[in-house]
Amino acid sequence: MKMEWIILVAVWLTTSSLFFFIPRKKLRLAQFVILFTQVITWLIGLVVVQLGWIDYPVRCFASANMTSFTFEYLAYPVVCGLFNARFPENRSIGFKLFYYGSYCTILTIVEVVIEKNTKLIDYIHWAWYWTWITLFITFVMSRIFSKWFFSVSVPQVRIGENHE
Questions:
Q1: Strands 122-123, 54-55: parallel, antiparallel or unpaired by DSSP?
Q2: CA dist 99 to 102, 107, 126, 157, 163, Å?
């Protein structure tokens, strides 16, 4: 049990340090994506736990939530924010797909290793490919929604100007 808590603390520290890799000019984008992703992962996390597909025997806030607060509300949303802030917008479609695939694959490998070696997550009726697919879908959703959100023209009002 001690190993699980060491891993949770390490994930919190590592995730917190990821903010330093977000370019300053993309910080608003990353913050938006983090909040958007938290909504998605909260819903998906609750569904998979309630359906009995995944169990989180060791978790933060165990009496309040059956999902993994550390992954659903912190680690994955921050990684998703970093993903969007550093997205290779001007690269080829092949490179963009590689970018998506790399993030999904690395996160899936980490989850599978944690699932096999700890009590932080137990797959009941789940498999690694479901993790990969849901990560891919949420990365795509966050990318599409953030592009749409930041493309909406918002009139800028300057203090002291006459707006009649």
A1: antiparallel
A2: 5, 13, 25, 37, 45
Closest by CA to 53, choosing from 2, 107, 129, is 129
Residue type, 48: V
Query: Quick count: other Cβ atoms within 10 Å of Cβ 37?
Result: 26
Tens digits of per-residue pLDDT, 127-159?
999 999 999 999 999 999 999 998 865 555 566
Segment 2-27, tens digit of pLDDT: 888 888 888 888 888 888 888 899 99
Sequential DSSP letters for 4-62: HHHHHHHHHHHHHHGGGGS-GGGHHHHHHHHHHHHHHHHHHHHHHHHTTSEE-SS-TTT
CB atoms closer than 10 angstroms to residue 41: 23
pTM: 0.85
SS3 percent helix, strand, coil of the chain, rounded to 5, is 70, 0, 30
**Tokens of residue 8, six digits:** 């949770």
